[in-house]
Amino acid sequence: MEKELPDFNLNGTNLLQMIWQRRFVFMLIGAIAFVVSIVVSLLITPQFKSSAILIPSTATQASKDAFVASRARGLTVFGDDEEVEHLIQILSSETLRRHIVNEFNLFEYYGVNPADKHAWYKVNRIYSGNVSFMPSRYRSVRIEVLDDNPQMAAKLANAIVVTADSLTREAKRLVAQKALEVLEFHYQQLLDDAYSLDDSMTTVMAHGVINLPYQAKEATRVYTEALAAANKAPADRVVKYINKLALQGAKYTRYFNDIQYKSLQIKDLQENLHILRAEAQGLIPSQFVIDWAYPSDKKAKPKKLVIVIASTLSALFFSLFLFILLDFFRKSIKPQKVA
Q: Model's pTM, two decimal places?
């Protein structure tokens, strides 16, 4: 009579039995993985991390706080989530990256030959592995730089901060210059129109119309008093004076209103010109540096204990998985028969 061995069944009891039966193998694998991971962790070059923290400024022109008296100072200084995203985009830009690579000669520092076909790709890969940007929960941006030399890590982080601010201010400066040219041309046109209106008003005032509302009011009062006193001659003179005012009154009113309107426009344009001239100079910072980067006195990588524990456990779990597969194929795929 023949009977088949039971099918492969993986449960807690069988798993513990399998581990116990192969305990010496697991101990050997764990010991080898432990020693190898220690050797590998000792061979890894330690890296130091330096961090800088930035808060972007508001997207509106910061120079308004200096020239516009009605603005609420201090309420719109720090940027919002949108400005944080813009700052991260600038920090991740190829322009900033190439500037840093050229400034610090990272080709030579990272051991990359500039004449290689994929030199920039290799440098960018190393750069991206060592430099990272991340937003924080407080609407700020953290710049982290890893390097074998703690002094170099701090220098790179601070150079990235300065370059990002320079690129942002330069972009704003170029836009402000173009806007300033258009605004100055429009401002000059308004001044020419205002001078023309002043000349026209001077001509009207030469005919005796100095202050139309006051003169009309006084003429009407005198005329009424003359009529009440039955003085015909003074009343006739007042009528002639009123008719003279009427000839120039419409022009006076139109020129007066136009001058008032042009004055308001000129005032607004003067305010905007002050703001744009300040922006065009590119002297206003685009961000607030909360923390500059400093050289670290403790390595950030590698974490030897983490490497050893993770490597040893990974080797043990992998060997356990292999033994489970071996038992599965031995018992389930080709079951043995016993007489």
A: 0.64
